[in-house]
Amino acid sequence: MSQHAKSTAPPPHLTVPLLDLRRQYQTLATEIVPIVENIFANQQFILGRYVLEFEQAAAAYCNCAHAIGVSSGTDALLLALMSLGVGAGDEVITTPHTFFATAGTIARAGARPVFCDIDARSFNIDPAAVREFLYRQCERRAGKLINRGTGAHVSALMPVHLYGQCADMGQLLELAREFDLKVIEDAAQAIGADDADARRAGSMSEIGCLSFFPTKNLGAFGDAGMCTTQDAELAERMRVLRVHGGKPKYYHALIGGNFRLDEIQAAVLGVKLRRLDSWTAARQRNAACYAAAFTRAGLNGQIQAPTVTPGYRHTWNQYVIRAPRRDALKQFLGEQGVGSEIYYPVPLHRQQCFAYLGYGDGDFPVTESAAREVLALPIFPELEPEQIQYVVGRIAAFYG
Ligand SMILES: *Cc1c(COP(=O)(O)O)cnc(C)c1O
Question: Smallest Cα–Cα separation from 400: which of 2, 11, 3?
């Protein structure tokens, strides 16, 4: 068939949402409903047996000795910072290309976020940029690492495993050792992701933070999150801080917060965790299906498909392409029934609330170009091959 004949036939109009959680629930309802009814009958809602069971299962899944269920991924980050004593006078190195909560919690803990640019391929914080900051901007004074520009103590590093792929932890952990930085992994998007040494997201540093927000690969029926650690003392500290720092109850050596996980969420998550590996396999099949379809459609000169760092287990929370004329493409796809989203349109160093940090346009060029070009396409496990073909066909039509 000629190119011309092909393009005159109107394509069948499919609807491809960015995410459809209803299909997944249909396969789970018969298992989840009786459990939730049981919780309703027992009226024990907070930190009960389902939370304990889920914490044990999730710790094992993440290759961690301890897991502490909390109220959200954001609260997991805040609790991690609090339990490590990161606060006023401290600075925490992180990426400007991430969800707001990463830097938002650093500021809420009383510390100052310091941004380092990302790697253009992985979208994760670039160890070379971190190294340059540490060697060029910092010096040791009285045994403490001080940012010469601000006079503050650079005490921690918070890499994000963005879109479901681990940051380059080998290099980052080496820098952290060299400069005495505490490390918190923001693994909110990356449960089950591994690096090339088969180390699991959330297991490689002092504390890993997971989110079970409904759009994450393991999604609750509401808000939920988790802190993971290999350190028994830190685990105990987080358990105490999770309930306002009271231990025993009503006796406070520490000031914590209400970071509790509830039984309904834990029960749902326990059921879903058993399916997570099969859902991840489906996401990986979908990613491979996109890559093949982009090649068949001759789109690789136009768009840039996401890459997997060799040896890594990418869990594809998001399938993010780089696209020229991104905003017009997004609009066109929307008109064609295809959902897409921009993660994230405004780099954190350009957010109004962080103007006080003193960053300007052009400070992080790799991040800024990513913010202009990234577009997340549907990747959820239940997506059909025809739907992927349709999405790719519509992208080809746009660049046509
Ligand atoms: C989702 C997310 C969070 C916050 O998790 P919530 O459960 O929504 O509070 C933090 N960091 C990153 C990178 C995220 O994607």
Answer: 3
- pLDDT band at 191; cut points 50, 70, 90: very high
Tokens of 143: 């045994």
Residue 84 CA to residue 357 CA, distance in Å, equals: 23
Kindly state whether residues 269 and 357 are assigned to the same domain: no
Would you state the pLDDT for residue 9?
55
| 351-400 confidence digits (pLDDT tens) | 999 999 999 999 999 999 999 999 999 999 999 999 999 999 999 999 98
CA of 349 to the centre of ligand 1 (A): 18
The kind and range of the H/E element at 62 are none
Nearest to 158 by CA among 121, 200, 105, 234: 105
Q: What is the pTM of this model?
A: 0.96
Closest CA to 261 of 56, 42, 25, 52: 52
Q: How many angstroms separate the alpha carbon of residue 381 from the centre of ligand 1? A: 20
How far, in Å, from the CA of 73 to the mean position of ligand 1? Answer: 5
Side chain identity at residue 122, one-letter code = S
**Atom 14 of ligand 1: nearest residue by CA position:** 188
Q: Ligand 1, from 19, 95, 189: best to mutate by most atoms within 8 Å of Cβ?
A: 189
Residues spanned by the domain of 360: 3-16+276-399
* Mean pLDDT, range 243-271, rounded to an integer: 96
* Whole-number Å distance between alpha carbons of 374 and 323: 6
Of 252, 273, 294, the last residue of a domain is 273
Residue to probe by mutation, ligand 1, list 70, 72, 75, 99, most atoms within 8 Å of CB? 99
